[in-house]
Every structure is written in structure tokens, then in C-alpha cells.
Amino acid sequence: MPEYRWNTSSFAEGYDAAAPQIHPYYVQVQDGIVGILGDLAAGRPTSEPLHIVDLGGGSGRLLERILKILPAATATIVDQSEAFLAIAERRLAPFGGRVEFVVSRLQEDWPAKLAQQPNALVSTSAIHHLDPGEKQALYQQVAGTLATGGLFLNGDEVRPEDDAEYQATMERWAQFMRAGMASGAIPTGFHPAAQGWIERNVVRFGEPKNSGDDCHETAATQLDYFLAAGFRRADVPWHCELWSILRGVK
């Protein structure tokens, strides 16, 4: 298997620094997830704090926000990149024993590495890298891992049904990244990765995708995956352009 590109410190650090400038709705996706989790916690007895698992949690930016607004919550961050998890450990150090770190690919048996059953699983900008079969297998793992009544929130990239609309959306994102590189908002060290994304997804739009690429699927397709995996309810509480929050209730 080739070396995972995010498992080098330079790539991980570059992405961590550039992420809010690369994704036009990076903050809004996190806002939506944090708000929904806040509502979930508010409806639970104070004696039953949430345990939250972040799948593909990278450098810990989302969990940092969650743990700040939910002071009783505990969390586990799962990622295959040791370089990303090293950044997450530094970022989440102020929360001490409230956070555990698990090295695992999402295609592996990550549930076996969890110390406790989660009430909520979250993910942002990670699962779209899985091919359709891998997504379905992951959603089955998620549904099987969650406690009854638990919540799954996937803030991710989802394609429109129409190919022309999809291509136009990808081109708008490419233009956003080009502007970020030209203005200096995206650090110079991350320019090769951004340019590589544009080459793969815009210049070579429509070429077949493999696991690890941007394997975008529609929200409707993935909600069907949720229901087939065993969630009793699935919906989209937030959507803008290429980004949605997909919600599954166990």
C-alpha cells in the first residue's frame, strides 16, 4: 500500500493551518454539528454526559470546539494519520483525560479499539474519501457501535445529482482555492496539495475514482445507506453548495 499522504508532518501541519481557507463552509459545517450536539446534551440528564467519537478527526479542530461547549463530555478521536494525531494531542492537551486517541483506518475494525460505547459519532471532510462499498460498511459499523438513541453526524462533501451542476460546483471551489493561493490566505507550503486537488477533480473531471480519491456521492444515496445500515431515521439538517450534514438516529 502506498504511503498515506496525510501521514507526513508537513502535509498534516499544512492542512491544519490552511483548512479554514481551503473549505468555504468549514466553520459553518462545524457550527452545525456543534449546535446539534449541544441540543442533544441539553436533553440528557446531567448524570449521563455524552461520549463522542470523531471519525477521521485529523488535527482535533472539531473536538476542541465540542469539548469547550460540553464541559462534561468525553471523546475519542480516530484517525489513520499519526502526524495528524500528534497535532491533535497538542491541541487537545488542555482537556487532559477527557480525550483518547486511536490510530486506525476507517476501513478497519476501529470499534474494537474504543474504550467505551459512544452516544454520538461525528465526522467532517473524511468519509467522502471512501468508495461506495467502504462507505456502506462504515455506516454499518457506526450503527452497530452507537448506543440506542445515539446520533451520527457526517459533515462532508456530497455531490448534486446533475453532472453539469456538480462540475460547476467543483469549478467554483477550485476558483475559491485559486483566490486563496493568490492572496496568501492558503499557505505556500500547501499550494501543491491544493493544485493537485484541482488537477484531479476539475481538470480531470469525470474520470473514475478509487478509494482515497474524492468519491463524492449524493445525499440521497448516503441516506439510503444509513437506513440500510440500521438507522431508524436519516435526514439532512444543513446543506450549502457541495457540503451537507448527514444525520442518522439509531
UniProtKB/TrEMBL annotation:
This is N5-glutamine S-adenosyl-L-methionine-dependent methyltransferase. CDD domains: AdoMet_MTases. The keyword Transferase applies. SUPFAM superfamilies: S-adenosyl-L-methionine-dependent methyltransferases (SSF53335). GO terms for biological process: methylation. Pfam families: Methyltransf_25 (PF13649). One of its GO terms (molecular function) is methyltransferase activity. Residues 52-150 form the Methyltransferase domain. Keywords: Methyltransferase, Transferase.
